[in-house]
Amino acid sequence: MMVARYERIAAELRDDILRGEQPVGSTLPTDAELAARYSAARGTVRQALAVLVAEGLIGSRQGARRIVLGTSRSQSFAELHSFAQWAKANGYRFSGQVLRQQRRRATSAEAARLASPEVLEVLRLRTLEDEPVLVERTVYAGWIAAAVEVIPPDCDSITQALFDSTGLVFAYGEHLIDAVPAGAQDARLLGVRRGSPLLRQRRVTTTQEGRPVESSEDRYRAGSVTFSIRNSIGANPLVRQAGDLRFGA
Amino acid sequence: MMVARYERIAAELRDDILRGEQPVGSTLPTDAELAARYSAARGTVRQALAVLVAEGLIGSRQGARRIVLGTSRSQSFAELHSFAQWAKANGYRFSGQVLRQQRRRATSAEAARLASPEVLEVLRLRTLEDEPVLVERTVYAGWIAAAVEVIPPDCDSITQALFDSTGLVFAYGEHLIDAVPAGAQDARLLGVRRGSPLLRQRRVTTTQEGRPVESSEDRYRAGSVTFSIRNSIGANPLVRQAGDLRFGA
DNA sequence: TAGGGGAACTTGTACAAACAAGGCCAGACC
DNA sequence: GGTCTGGCCTTGTTTGTACAAGTTCCCCTA
Predict the structure, then answer these.
(1) Interface test with B, best of A72, A136, A177 (most B CBs within 10 A)
(2) CA dihedral in degrees (B223, B227, B228, B233; nearest 10)?
(3) I want to staple A216 with a disulfide (CB 3.0 to 4.6 A). Which of A87, A138, B101, B159 is the partner?
(4) What is the pTM of this model?
């Protein structure tokens, strides 16, 4: 596996920061110095630095030296998308269980979102450190339904299973995050009172080619999971939205 | 105000997508074609395309043509940070009112976060479309307190006011998002029942130089505001976090 | 007709060079 | 002592070139 030069330079610089060799607030060497150190062109070094800027580790302004801003980096798309990959990467004990699974006709909203007349609906309960923390209500597009149905009900990582069986890679997603009161089913599954606060994450995911794969509504028990966003000017993937403009309901 | 070439090219391409001239799923022209169209070097065109990839509008894989993924772009960092700028940009009626404001000694956690022994604590209520939707509990570092205190209590945009008076630009922020039950004060101010779900956003903001400016806890009434995150592989600013690792309590 | 092999195409990576734009600091000046 | 200015330093932008790596699709073959 050949890794790009700028990726390796970025990894080295990231290590320097994470190890504390470049403490928060310190200035990084200049483009020219780094280019000399790594025997690379300035453009290549700048590409590496752009990675760290996007991760929120360093700040950059024209004319001034680059500054170390933080020591914890934004994690991968995979970790955002897959509960299992996130939990595993952070060393948590976790599991998942399919509670219900059925094919049905898509509602008009789902048909529009997933470009699919038939869908597979799955209800899944996830635990973290042996506590139930997440109810997932996922709707898969028809073309991927068969691959999902053969996954064992207690499979930990659906993302991983789909990649292994079909080579599918989730490449893009849109996520809406808000707070909702627990419904009767939520309350029973998560062991909380009805009406207590849940963190809701709705998302639509597509393949690299832009083909819709799934639409999901996940509800986290309050206090169990927090979303963290780190951003600088120029790298800003988050917006607020009033009311429920998309998703209807 | 000189705008970079690649920014203008990115803006034109973005317009094509937002106007529907490049519908979702369609392929963009190749680097070479775009370079010819804009009489720019391929590198410049690629820089423009990188902007759109970061915004989640288009997808890109080596060897394959670029594809339009979405039609609504992630908005600016300023809009994420400032309620007023977001509301104004989206044409909403809004207002703000300071309810309480006092200087005090920083708690040890605040002193660590803001690197300041004395702080200014402000309680602010925001309305959207004449409905109370947001309670802001903000703690400003001592060095900026004086500039905040002279802002009129009914000022709509603190961000703007601080920029006008001191030239301060918020450059960096970390945001933690979760769900919490409304406390007694929250319930009274927002007109909801105690214990009903609120969307909580905690953040620490710094200047471009990495100097801490403020630490804030904002609580949104459920249903009033939704956070939206759009991401692709490679551009991923969001992570989940278990429990309350940071911020204590 | 189904499948394999390529050729052509497209995006990714890397290097080199030059100028623009903004920050920083020291020395000059009031 | 304080302020201002100019030069130096550093990052930002742009162009040009070359090759690597992955995708697509047509054509040839079995």
Answers:
(1) A177
(2) -140
(3) A138
(4) 0.74
